Every structure is written in C-alpha cells, then in structure tokens.
Amino acid sequence: MKRDLSRTPYAWLQEASIAIDGRGVFCITLLMLASICSNVARAARIEHVVLISVDGLPGSVLQSLIANDVVGDYAGFAQLASGATTFNAHADWTHTTTLPNHISMLTGRPVSQPAGQATDVHHGYTSNTSPAPTDTIHNVGNPNVAYVESVYDVLYRSGVSSAMYTSKNKFAIFEQSYNAADGPQNPVHMNDLIGRYVFSASGSPLNASSMHSQFLSDIGVSHFQFSFVHYRDPDTAGHSFGWESAEWIDAVKRVDGYLRELLNIVESDPVLLDKTVLILTADHGGTGGTHVDATEPLNYTVPFFVWGAGVSPGTDLYAINATTRTDPAVTRPDYNSIGQPIRNSDSGNLALGLLGLEPVAGSTINVQQDLAISEPETLGEMIPCLAGPNIGTAPAGCLNVEFQQADLDGDGDVDLADFIWLPENPQP
Ligand SMILES: [Zn+2]
Predict the structure, then answer these.
(1) Taking the model in full, what pTM does it have?
(2) Where are the domains of the chain?
(3) Residue 427: which pLDDT band, with cuts at 50, 70 and 90?
(4) Residue 37 forms beta bridges with which residues?
(5) Residues with CB under 5 A from ligand 1 (ion)
(6) Residue of 42, 52, 3, 2 whose CA lies nearest to 20
(7) 266-310 pLDDT, tens digit each
(8) Ligand 1 mean position to 26 CA, how many Å?
(9) Which CATH class, in words, describes the domain spanning 48-354?
C-alpha cells in the first residue's frame, strides 16, 4: 500500500515539486543549511529489464580480460561494465553450481539453510543435473516450503510480460516449476507464469548461439518487460578445455559478441531505447576444469553489472551501496555476516524493483530492494521520495529502489537530513 502523504508535513514539498516541474529550477532554504538549488529532473522510467547470466565467468578473470583488451574483443562486456559495476560479487555461500545459483537469483533465497536462520528461508534445491519430468523446485527443494515463489510469480500477478531464454536443458526445472499448465506440479498457482520459455543449444561443444538468435528476434518483436537470458558458452568450454584455456577465452569472446548484438538492439529500437536496464552476472566462476568448491575465490567471485536507463555511469556498486553492502575484499562472508557482499542472487529482486514491482514473497536476499544503481544527483530526483523522519516506505511516485537511493544518510527514511548529503552541498 502506498502512503497517503496529504496529511504529512512533507506534502507541501511534494506538491511544490509538481508545481515547479515545468519551470525546471527549485530552491528551498532549510534551517541549518545553505540554500539548495538544483535542476529538477525526473528519474528515468525503466520499462524493460534484461537479466543476463553468463555461465562460469569468474569476476577477477573478466576484469583482467577487459583491462588488457587492445582490439575490442570485450567491448560488449566493457560497455555493460561502464554503468554501476563490481567484479567482486559473490555466488551462493554453500554452492557454486549452476541450477542452485540460478534458482537463488530468481527466488532471492540462499541455497542451503544459513546456520541459526529459520528453516523456511532457503530454497533447498541442490541438484545440478537434469530434472526428472515430475521434479519441481517445490517438491525437490526445501520440504519446509510448500511453494517457492519466483520473480515470475510477481511478474505474472502484475501483468508484466516475461520470458526465459536458456541454453542448458536442465533449466527445464523452471518450466516444470513455474510453467506447468496443470495442477499437480504447480498446486498453488496453476498458471503458466513464464510468458515465453525457450531452450536452445547448438554447436560442438554446445553453445548459446541458436538461443541467442532466437532471443534477439523475439525481443525485437515482443519487447518483453522482463527477460532472463542464460549464456552457457564459458562453462561448457571450461569443462571441456579448462578455465582460461584458449577455447575458454574464445567462448568468452563469443559471449561478448552476443552482448554487442543485444546492446545494438537496445540502443536502436525506439521501444527499448532509454527505457531498458541490463543486469549481467554469473552463476559461478571456475578454475582448472570445474567450479564445485564453494570456498575457492575463482568459483564464488562473479561480476555484477547494471547498465542502462537511470544507472549512474562509471560507478562502483559497493561505493554507492556503502550503507547496505560491504565489499568483502578477499573474504567469503556467510549469510549471517554483518556487511553482506553483493550477490548474484540480488539480481531478481533488483529487476523487480526497477520495474516498480514488489519483491519475491519469501525471499530474503535484496528483499528490501535496497541495492542502489545510482546516486540521486539532483534535488528533483530526491523530492518524490521525501516521506519524512522514521517513515520507511516509499511514497507514491517513488520506486523502492529510488527510495533507498534517496536515503543518503542510510538511516532508513528519506527526510530533510538526507538533503545535506546531496552532491551539490558541502558535506558535514
Ligand atoms: Zn554454471
């Protein structure tokens, strides 16, 4: 429920911001503060989110490839990394395998029960093999959760168009869990929650090129509001030839080609242009010929890039999320640690928040949707989120993501104290 602001002392300021929107400049003077003047600009409206998972991509290795790129082999990755970015996000704490991490991304839950936390927090799906036809996340995963909600439940309830493009057939677990047309496999919702589900792989070793081509042609027509896209190439090459082998490098370059083609569409299609955010992460990294050791940094360290509408360019994600996330440096914090790293599993609730939607029910990771993708840069971007002291929810006209961004002092509300921290003001 959105709050009714009409009776709060902050209503006048919100109304004033609407009244001066056309004029473009708004100045207020606050006790104890110098005059604050800023251009009034509405934050970008995000209408499309593409969540990209590159299977088997260690963050530190990708960072090195981009840094040493002289001929543009990684221009697509580099462009996505030019937004709000870290190369030091983490995978799940107990599992650095494919299906468990992708289920965490799309459900916002850890794979296994964190010590001392409730028994219904984790999704509990630890298998990484092709599911049996009757398997679902619900009947194989955590027995204490009858139905594990996903981003697709929220999207379906909200009438938001969705798609899932995968390049490994074991992703059928999502089709079976969220797209079953009949009751027994989906007892709660009984609906096709995933708007368009596509699995395709081709080549030898198998790669995502056929799936990618299908995705490009489909998004150009359907303009999905949310799409999840999975590129298997580095993982498959890593298992066949070893991570960082010549074949693995070629696979990463091939993914870069996919990204450049997707970026071309996003930057040329008028429906997508300036209204789309791309999120790129990985389920896990890899070293040698595998990635199963969850304590190995090359396995658990993954990139997390956010690029597009409303994203501050050239921004370190940890720097703009200093009040809610902590760069783990070389450590591996568990889910109970004070100061959580950014995780690949922040991505699902981030995508929902950017689309103005509620978080996944039952999720714990980024359930506050407080992973910020930009700093509020102007007073005009702050005004719609102004709610008042000790009011922890976003008012109408302010996305949860924007509310968290506007809480510049990190005390859980957006009040006049936050204006002290605007970039144009001297810091106290
Ligand atoms: Zn994987």
Answers:
(1) 0.84
(2) 5-43+377-419, 48-354
(3) low
(4) 27
(5) 55, 98, 235, 283
(6) 42
(7) 999 999 999 999 999 999 999 999 999 999 999 999 999 999 998
(8) 50
(9) alpha beta
